[in-house]
Write a structure and sequence with these properties.
By secondary structure, this protein is of the alpha/beta class. The chain has two domains: 8-270, Ribonuclease Z/Hydroxyacylglutathione hydrolase-like (Metallo-beta-lactamase, Chain A); 278-317, no CATH class. Helix content is 29%, strand content 20%. The protein has helices at residues 44-55, 71-74, 77-84, 95-98, 113-118, 185-190, 206-217, 237-247, 279-308; strands spanning 8-11, 14-19, 22-29, 32-36, 63-65, 88-90, 133-135, 141-142, 145-152, 161-165, 170-174, 223-226, 262-264, 267-270. Strands 1-2-3-4-5-6-7 form a seven-stranded mixed β-sheet, with helices on one face. A five-stranded mixed β-sheet has the order 8-9-10-11-12, with no helix packed on it. A two-stranded antiparallel sheet has the order 13-14. Helix 1 links the parallel strand 4 (32-36) and strand 5 (63-65). Helix 7 runs antiparallel to helix 8. The protein is globular and about 55 Å long.
């Protein structure tokens, strides 16, 4: 993973920093640069320090560009905006969620896997950026980044975008895919590089999501930086992405696998019914059973104490 003391370069004018569970990207040079995504809440200091180490104390960004608005990608956006006084941009289809007009499609812990289990403890809402977030240009240009193109890659989030630099085939994919296996406990703990599906419990349309992966594979990236996991480089990167895109499939089950949620410029307009989530009931049963056993042992111990001691505190034997 990236060293949280400073950003790690992956291509000319591109470096990344890991903030807890997600990455942010510093793109450009001291004359003109952009922060891509804004990390997890609580990492403002680390991001500011990384920016200073890379660009100097007087180099403020042209903008903050969000690949999408999930909480782990926008956590520090409002604080960074206040510090830098720069605009924040997102795809128009993300604005309902970033301005409090709509919640994202509900997370789906029943999809299974490590991230499915952990999602039960993650926030359901994102950061409200009303008054500071703006729409990205519809022509695909990226404010402050000459030579880069914003590509709409929905499925994980309605307005998920990826950023593409054609000149040297650098791709910043956000959560259109991951470069660590987030469905595996081993993958989460080791962060071993592996191209993987976007975070499963937060993906609302698997047909769109897999289509976006195949769309990006056709670009044949030489370098790919995702929102989760270490960036991938090397001469075989394009081939690895093609192989992954050919093989990728939705999860075997889950709320949105057969029927996606639907969203438009207003936000979420339809969600399929939630399947039963048995784990909370199982956990509650385990906790209740533990208390019952503990209570029985306590009562048994108390009864034994009464038998062992006579009135006045003297043993009867």
């Amino acid at each position: 993973m990236a060293n949280n003391e400073g950003p790690v370069a992956i291509a000319p004018g591109v470096a990344y920093l890991t903030t807890g569970i997600s990455n942010v990207y510093f793109v450009g040079d001291s004359a003109d640069w952009v922060l891509v995504d804004a990390g997890v809440v609580g990492y403002t200091r680390q991001i500011l320090a990384a920016a200073v180490s890379r660009f100097g104390t007087a180099a403020y960004p042209h903008a903050i560009v969000l690949t999408h608005g999930h909480y782990d990608h926008v956590g520090c956006a409002r604080d960074l905006h206040a510090e830098w006084n720069c605009p924040v941009f997102a795809h128009p289809l993300e604005l309902p969620y970033l301005t409090g007009k709509s919640d994202y499609p509900q997370k789906d812990p029943t999809v299974g896997g490590a991230m499915g289990f952990l999602s039960r403890f993650f926030p359901s809402r994102t950061v409200n950026l009303s008054g500071i977030v703006k729409e990205l240009p519809v022509d695909g240009s990226v404010p402050g980044l000459s030579g880069w193109t914003a590509i709409h890659t929905p499925g994980h989030a309605p307005g998920q975008i990826s950023l593409w630099r054609e000149s040297d085939r650098v791709l910043i994919a956000g959560d259109a895919m991951a470069s660590a296996d987030l469905d595996s406990w081993r993958g989460i703990t080791t962060q071993k590089p592996k191209l993987s599906r976007p975070p499963s419990p937060f993906t609302y349309d698997w047909s769109l999501a897999t289509g976006s992966i195949r769309q990006l594979a056709k670009l044949e990236p030489a370098i790919i930086g995702c929102g989760h996991g270490e960036p991938m480089t090397g001469p075989d990167t394009a081939a690895r992405i093609r192989q992954f895109a050919d093989a990728v499939r939705p999860p075997s089950h889950g709320r949105y696998v057969a029927t996606p949620a639907k969203a438009d410029q207003r936000g979420v307009v339809y969600e399929p019914p939630a399947p039963p989530d048995r784990l909370p009931k199982i956990a509650a049963g385990i906790v209740a059973g533990t208390f019952l056993v503990a209570g029985a042992l306590y009562r048994k111990r108390g009864a034994k104490a009464k038998r062992d001691f006579a009135p006045g505190g003297k043993r009867t034997d």
